[in-house]
């Protein structure tokens, strides 16, 4: 029995190596994060029961948001296992780069943490023959404020304090504003080193929207993909910011929650004005996203989020990643694969994976519309 168990464990380990290698081959982005293919308890992710290959074939290129990379890796792994002969290649870069690639016609779809702007929609009409680019919300989740401060395992901040840290006005961790929010915590006088995204980023824009709405007196910058404030250091991608925070004592930065989870980075609890500070989690983000309103028209499902919510247990620094596609005028050679892959991502099985890995599924009412629109793509 011992020999049989040893052989089983050895076979299991070899299988894990094969899966790991497949993920490396299918993920072109630099935002490497562990845990793909398993849920929060380390067990295999949910079976991909809703995959319909429906004429999908060849290679599908996509690029954009690094915030959704870990979710896309899981979708790609399951999808390619079900649809033999199909290759989906998602390049994790940034929302800005993804939209540029989409409007240049080099990808079948792009991931963006911010909806297309009117001028970007207009530009997309050159690529989407007879149609235009639309926003399909596919992935939700909290933007975690991660920190690294020796001896401090729990930290509460509010919007004005976060704004004044990132605009370089609060420079040390024992600042009175931070001490007031953390009574009884021994805060060191360590200098604060804040990190931000160096490239155009939808995550940056969503953080800016939150700070502009929740702390308008402290954060006077308009929300934009390009980091607007003085000071701090830039890093590439969510993984780059997370890596810097992980390495530097006194550091603080922002990134999608799974980067904090995978690297054991501590995250800030938010004082939103609710009865208790709110932790960044899939559940707390879902409570905030559930209040979102569809503001897009026609097939466009762009959402408006409430960044100032004080609802109990709702974490307001959230982002929604959109898959940007043509409603009409998609390339004939990639259209079946685009519809098939995004159909799986929006399916019950595809959305369940999000819950298992720290993301927030899109609310059912909105997601049902996403499925209808994916089916209607032409």
From TrEMBL:
Keyword Signal: yes
Alphabetical UniProt keywords: Phosphate transport, Signal, Transport
GO cellular component term, pick one: ATP-binding cassette (ABC) transporter complex
InterPro entries (alphabetical): ABC_phos-bd_PstS (IPR005673), PBP_domain (IPR024370), Phosphate-bind_PstS (IPR050962)
Signal peptide bounds: 1-27
GO molecular function, one term: phosphate ion binding
Domain PBP per the UniProt entry, residue ranges: 56-348
Pfam family name, one: PBP_like_2
Record SUPFAM superfamilies: Periplasmic binding protein-like II
Any GO BP annotation: phosphate ion transmembrane transport
Protein name, entry field: Phosphate-binding protein
Family membership noted in the UniProt record: Belongs to the PstS family.
Organism encoding this protein: Streptomyces globosus
Record-listed phosphate binding positions: 65-67, 95, 113, 201-203
